[in-house]
Design brief:
The structure is a single chain. By secondary structure, the chain is an alpha/beta fold. The protein is built from 17 helices and 13 strands. α5 runs parallel beside α6 and α8 crosses α9. About 40% of the residues are buried.
Length: about 350
């Protein structure tokens, strides 16, 4: 409209004043536009011009140290590659609770959660596009872990395997499968042991699980909370723990704890995904994808190992064979029919966990 108005101006003193005013408006608009392009850090065009981009990674409890280190190396890598500075906001909590927070409006650009099922829940809410498991290598699981026992130095209760956790007087610490992904892995590892012990007899397996959870002293909402209960607050005789959590506790408190490897455990596969709806709205889809892709780089894989996660890269995993027991007997989620079946069977409302724990 300003341009068409200028076309109608007549020459002369009035026209000159109006023309000058018009030019001032154009200059001001150009200046405002220039300021906007440098401050709007969320658009891809801004990324191309070398500005700062903000992304949010909603993760689960025990990844705090891992991503604190990873965010730093990713920012360096991405700046060298593109000239763009990436700032990552990190959020941690129980994996199931974190998934629900994203569904409820937590504007995550990426999620790095403990269970495939938790990310599937976000997909079913319409925020992640189908096929996300195939977007990155290893079913979008850049590192793995397993479940071990952490006991106090001396192992006073002589805990060596799952059957010791059902003995009278043994106090167990584990988080709730209703809110914690790690707790779901804990439950399934124990179930796999009982299944072999009792030859698949479901009644005996359920009784074993009921006895185990009857010995649970504190059931926190997340894995890190359970670790704090055991380590910081000194409660319980044994913590059923992510392998990385157990190693971190031993690193922080040398000579105070021991790791016990049970005869049967489970291959825990945390999953990652771009939250497509949010990332597209924020204009961060390209950066978010790069953030997850770089988790598979050699540098990032070694950072995972240094934080006691098992690299998905087999060659790099082998480099840390002096840290990890690579001969553990590990079942997988496929032994339970995949996560959709396992979650419906064990952890949905009215499922087996509710049945054995309410008893």
């Amino acid at each position: 409209m300003l341009i068409s108005g200028a076309d109608k101006m007549k020459s002369g003193f009035v026209g000159g004043i109006l023309t000058a005013a018009f030019m001032c408006v154009l200059i001001c608009l150009a200046a405002i536009a220039g300021c906007g392009s440098s401050s709007d850090s969320s658009s891809l065009s801004d990324a191309a011009s070398g500005d700062t981009v903000e992304i949010t990674n909603v993760s689960y409890d025990p990844t705090r140290e891992l991503y604190e280190a990873y965010n730093e190396i990713f920012a360096e890598y991405y700046y060298e590659k593109t000239g763009v500075t990436v700032n990552v906001t990190q959020s941690h909590g129980g994996s199931g609770s974190q998934a629900q927070s994203v569904i409820a409006g937590n504007e995550a650009d990426v999620v790095t959660l403990a269970l495939e099922h938790d990310i599937t829940a976000i997909e079913e809410a319409g925020l992640i596009e189908s096929g996300w498991q195939d977007e990155f290598d290893e079913d979008s699981s850049p590192y793995t872990s397993t479940i071990v026992f952490l006991v106090r130095a001396g192992n006073e209760k002589n805990i060596t395997d799952w059957d010791d956790l059902v003995e009278d007087g043994v106090e167990v610490i584990t988080p709730s499968p209703k809110t914690s992904g790690g707790a779901c892995w804990n439950f399934l590892a124990a179930w796999a042991y009982a299944c072999e012990l009792y030859g698949g007899d479901e009644d005996q397996i359920k009784q074993f699980m009921s006895d185990l959870y009857g010995n649970v002293l504190v059931m926190d909402s997340g894995a890190r909370g359970a670790t704090n209960t055991f380590v910081e607050n000194g409660q319980g005789d044994v913590l059923i723990a992510w392998e990385n959590e157990a190693y971190l506790a031993m690193e922080e408190y040398p000579d105070e704890y021991e790791i016990v490897t049970p005869s049967i455990s489970i291959l825990a596969q945390p999953s990652v995904a771009v939250v497509d709806s949010n990332a597209q709205a924020d204009g961060t889809a390209e950066v978010a994808a790069a953030y997850l892709e770089y988790l598979y780089s050699d540098e990032a894989q070694r950072i995972a190992a240094e934080n006691y996660y098992r690299p998905s890269n087999e060659e790099i995993l082998e480099e840390y064979s002096d840290v990890f027991d690579l001969d553990m007997n590990l079942v997988t989620i496929e032994d339970f029919g995949g996560w959709d079946t396992a979650f419906a069977t064990f952890f949905s409302d009215g499922g087996i966990f509710d049945e054995i724990y309410s008893d």
